Amino acid sequence: MKRAVTDSGPTEPNQEKPEVIQNLFTLMEIASSKETYDYFNEKWNDMSIRYGDMKKQLAEDIVKTLTPIRERILEYKSNQELLDKVAKMGAEKARESAAATLREVRKIIGFKVY
User: Fold this and answer.
1) pTM of the full predicted structure?
2) Which of 39, 48, 84, 101 has the largest count of CB atoms under 10 Å?
């Protein structure tokens, strides 16, 4: 996050955000609370924004948002029995779907369907 491109800041109140800054605000809108987003948006609008503070907050919020997902991935990754079961179920569904498609294609081209 520290390396995210920014500019020298707004030069007039309530000006439109350049794309590189809007990208940070879009990420903040997704990962941060509305209050946090509104705080930094207000700082942008009154020309007192400090990008370092914003990036630090955004990094913390992204980690906070992604931590439960990461933990769930590690949980699945460590359960080989569950992974095998899910893979087997997926293969069976794919096999059924493929068989139905083949029957339909054979019927369309005039082959006998068994």
Assistant:
1) 0.70
2) 39
